[in-house]
Amino acid sequence: MSHGTALVTGPTAGIGRAFADQLAAHGHDLVLVARDGDRLEQLAEELRGRYGVAVEVLAADLADREAVGEVEARLSDPSRPVAMLVNNAGFGHRLPFTENTVEDEQEMLDVLVTAVLRLTHAAVGPMLERGEGAIVNVSSVAAFLPRGTYSAAKRYVVSFSEWLDVTYRDRGVRGMAVCPGFVRTEFHERMGVGRDSAPRWMWLDADRVVREALEDLDRGRSVSVPSRRYKLLSGLARATPSSLQARFQGLGRR
Question: Which DSSP string do the residues of 162-195 spell out, in sequence order?
Answer without folding.
Answer: HHHHHHHGGGTEEEEEE---EESSSHHHHHT--G
